[in-house]
Amino acid sequence: MISTRSESGFSLIELLVAITLLLVVSSIVTSALMQMTQSQTTIWNRTEMHSGIRGATELLQQEVGQAGRAALSATVSLLAPVGPTAGGPCNPDTPTAPGDTVAVVSKDDKGNVVTSVNGINPLSGIFAQAGANPSYMLMATLDGDNQEVVKIGAVDQVASTITACFANPHLAGTVLMPIGAFATGIVPNVGIANGSTATVLKLYGDIIGDGNMVYVEYTCDTVNHNLYRNVMRYDAVAKPAVTNAQILLSNIIDNPGGTDCFTYQTTKLNVQGIDVYFVLDVAVTLTVQTQQLDPITKQYQTETKALLNVSPRNVFTAWEMASLDFTDHVQSTPVSVTALLP
Questions:
Q1: Which terminus of the chain has a lower count of CB atoms within 10 Å, N or C?
Q2: Which alpha helices (DSSP H) does the chain contain, by range?
Q3: Are 63 and 212 contained in the same domain?
Q4: Are residues 155 and 274 part of one domain?
């Protein structure tokens, strides 16, 4: 007897039901994957935006706090005894009349003689400019009972000499160091030509903390949507043009309510017969948006970061000293910095 096996398979209806179920499951999985991808894009856009504005405001906070610091990249000391200057007493208004010219030497922290630090002469940090509006660095001699503050009337980087009027005698090897701070380390928005503005923050001093004084401009450009940081030596011959290389933060937009990017709390004191404006606090407000549209809301995400009370500690110290009539602790604005303001 011959047996037969049934070779029948799924019916057409069963096949259609199975395919339909497979398509439904696939659609659910695909939809979940797309939602996950969109969520990840949203998170990435916001993380990138937050990271950028946080980095920019942290740098601003650090450099505003450092503004106004007077420093040299090496220790400067006398090579020969000097003073008291013949023809004294010293004229506080004219530091070079009378004055002694004395050789100095620069040494690193190990006591080795150096003529340059990172290719820059350490004496380049000492400034002296005669004329109708003179500027000069104030330096203290560190020699105990003979210690005094002198105004540098001239400096010769090639010959390694300085000129100043000394009221006390000082031995060879006496260290001279900058004293006090710059009153205009944060260039005020009032009382000075071409000062800081609501969109341009101007500051100078040993900003980076390496002993070299620099001039820095932060420009908040909401038209081109960039925050620029333009940094140069404080005695630069000319201010370099702002380029894309100076972009610190991109995609910035106008602040809500039209709030300025930079606002200043200033106070005025009379220092040696001149009204000087001290910036004691800087407020920074920046608003940025994501580079790409949010895939879920179809809009740009935005974030506003505000630093309301950033105090330039060195400028604040200069203001405190001036308030106590210690005006020999207030450094004058270098002429080279004034030339870079426009």
A1: N
A2: 12-66, 313-323, 335-340
A3: yes
A4: no
